[in-house]
Each structure stands twice: as C-alpha cells, then as structure tokens.
Design goal:
- There is one protein chain.
- By secondary structure, this protein is of the alpha/beta class.
- The chain has two domains: 1-112 and 298-358, P-loop containing nucleotide triphosphate hydrolases (Rossmann fold, 3-Layer(aba) Sandwich), CATH 3.40.50; 120-296, RecF/RecN/SMC, N-terminal domain (Glutathione S-transferase Yfyf (Class Pi), Chain A, domain 2).
- Helix content is 44%, strand content 24%.
- It is built from twelve helices and 15 strands.
- It is globular, with a radius of gyration of 22 Å.
- The two termini are 23 Å apart.
C-alpha cells in the first residue's frame, strides 16, 4: 500500500498542505510543535476516522475553523483510489473515489496503517479499555465482519444494560426478556471472541521471532488474552442476574476482557523496564505489519512518530532492517543525525515549520 499524495486543510496547525511522497521512505524534520506529528495524525485519521492522540476528534480542527479535510491518493494491489475525509464539529464523512461511504464501519480497513508513537506505552501500561481499543482497531483493519459483530454486540449490550436498570428500579420484571437479550449478546460475544483469540494467536506466532532479534535472543515475549468469564458466558451471566441488576450493568463479556504481555513469563507492565516496554511495543507493531501483509497481500503504511530518539543503536538497526523492505514509511524527527546515510540517500526529506511542510 502506497500513499502517493495527501492534501490536508485546517488540521491542527496545518492550514493547507499538498504533498507528494516517496514510495519508500519519507522523513519529516522540524522542531516540536511545527506540524510533523500532525501530518502523521492526519494519515491515521484518514485510515481509522479517529485520532490516535485524542478521543475528541473535533480537537484536530484548526482553531477558528469549522471543519478539516484530508484527501489522499493511495495505490493498493495495482489499483489507485482517491480517499477523502471531512470532519466538522458535528459530523464526519468519508469518500472513496468521490462516493460517500454510507457506513464508516465499512470504510475502516480500506487504508491499512501501523503507527508507532510515544502514546503506545498505553498498550502495556493502560487500563483494559485502552487495550481492548487497540485490539478492536487493529483487528478491524482486516476484518469487516469483526467490526460488524462488535457494533451489534455494543447495541445489544446497551439494550441489556437499559433493561437491567429498569428491573433495578422495579419499572419492569421481565426475566424472560432478559434471557432472550442475554442469549443474543452471547451469540455475538462468541463471534468476537473467536476473532480476538485467533488474532492474538497469529500475533504470538510472529512476535517472538521479531522480539528475539530486537533483544539479541535475550527475551521471550508472549501475549495472553484474559477473558472475563470461564467457559459458558450465558450460564455465568444467568448466575449473575441478581448482581447485574444491583449494579445496573453487564459484568461479563468481551467488553470486560483484557490482555497481558509477558516477558520471560513475567507481566511486563509490572516487572519490565521502560526500555523493555518500548521494545515490546516495537515488536508488537512490527508483528502487525506481518499480520496485515498475510491478511491483505500487501504491507501497510508505517508511521514512526519520534521513534529514533527513543531506541538504542541495536534496536535502531533492527528497525532499519524492516524499513529497508517494501514498506512505505513516514518518520518524524527533530534531528536527522539519528538516521544513517544509507536511509537518507533513498529518502525524501520534508521540513516542517510553523505548520508549513515543504
């Protein structure tokens, strides 16, 4: 997958950007606050319809403006498509070849992106909701059916919680209806679980080889998915009807699950150093590149936000090995001295200053 051109308007400090890109390596250089990260964020937003930096997308709209737009020309499997995304303070719309996409859930996954940024430590140290969001976004890139099942699950979960609150307030006493909704919820939960566990299994089959290269065979890494229930979700929820009515919410299910990353059989969030945690994140991201390649037939676009200053030379060299493959990569940095001459020779360098990138 190759991002050939991008046009960005009213995005944070980027007023009007129009750039053509190198199909291999693009390096965006500049001091902090000049628009480097905003450019990568705009690519991420175009792919996911969400920002990686904020849960409130309207924050990316330039101060004093009512909207932001991101338009791009992208090559994938020898086809070229034009993508467009418009975000206002009240709505967001996506287009492919000037055709508006009726559902954003069906649009996500058309552009495959893997991003490495300082915020990624939340994948290890964050709460379960943050980790589930990571799984949902990354798995959703390659499985429209997963997004479909997840949306229906959330819809039924909302209905179940509303019913529980009504029973709690004695507005209704319909446990037969609760049975029906619970069964529907469990049906979609099982579909979600199958995809999540398959996804984690596939990452585990890739990640350890990558991580051992990054750590000179010193560390073994494994991701373990942690379900909120044991075996039969329906029966376990039935046993917790009384508790769920008291709290007014559903206590078990994929919306309560978690995953833990183990390094040499120990929880890395507790026992891992910051350097080990960053390396684990890098291993996960590189594994995602391989996973997406196996699922779609092409490598995703790789976004590296201020990564070079955070890795030691050994890890940098290992990362460079991946960049040297057929992966279009975007790198932001304040100092090009971190980047070796071989990479610079085949890269296109962009300068970011006061929201202007040239």
């Amino acid at each position: 997958m190759i991002l050939n051109n991008i046009k960005v308007k009213n995005f944070r400090c980027l007023n009007n950007v129009n750039l053509d890109f190198n199909e291999n390596l693009n390096i965006i250089v500049g001091n902090n606050g000049q628009g480097k990260t905003s450019l990568l964020e705009s690519i991420y937003l175009l792919a996911f319809t969400k920002s990686h930096k904020t849960n409130f997308e309207r924050e990316v709209i330039m101060t004093g403006c009512d909207f932001t737009t991101v338009n791009a020309r992208i090559s994938f499997l020898d086809k070229i498509n034009d993508f467009g995304f418009v975000l206002t303070k009240k709505s967001k719309k996506a287009k492919i070849n000037d055709i508006e996409q009726k559902k954003l859930s069906e649009y996500i996954g058309k552009i495959n992106v893997v991003m490495f940024s300082p915020e990624d430590l939340k994948i290890i140290k964050g709460d379960p909701a943050t980790k589930r969001k990571f799984v949902n976004l990354e798995l959703g890139q390659t499985s429209p059916m997963y997004i479909y099942n997840l949306l229906l699950y959330k819809k039924i979960l909302k209905q179940r919680n509303e019913l529980l609150k009504k029973i709690q307030k004695k507005e209704i006493n319909d446990f037969i209806l609760l049975d029906v909704i619970t069964e529907q919820l469990c049906d979609y939960a099982s579909k979600i679980m199958v995809e999540r566990e398959t996804f984690i299994d596939k990452l585990n089959s890739i990640i350890n080889g990558i991580h051992q290269k990054l750590t000179n065979n010193q560390e073994v890494i494994k991701i373990k998915y942690r379900k909120s229930y044991k075996d039969d979700m329906f029966q376990e929820l039935k046993q917790k009807y009384k508790y769920d009515v008291i709290v007014g919410s559903t206590s078990l299910g994929p919306h309560r699950d978690d995953f833990i990353i183990f390094l040499n059989d120990e929880d890395i969030s507790i026992y891992g150093s910051q350097g080990q945690q960053r390396t684990a994140i890098l291993s996960i991201k590189l594994s995602l590149i391989e996973f997406i390649k196996t699922q779609t037939g092409e490598f995703p676009i790789l976004l590296l936000d201020d990564v070079f200053s955070e890795l030691d030379n050994f890890r940098l060299n290992s990362l460079v090995e991946y960049i040297n493959r057929d992966i279009q990569t975007f790198v932001t940095t304040t100092d090009v001295s971190f980047i070796n001459d071989e990479l610079k020779e085949r890269a296109t360098l962009f300068q970011a200053e006061k929201g202007i990138i040239r």
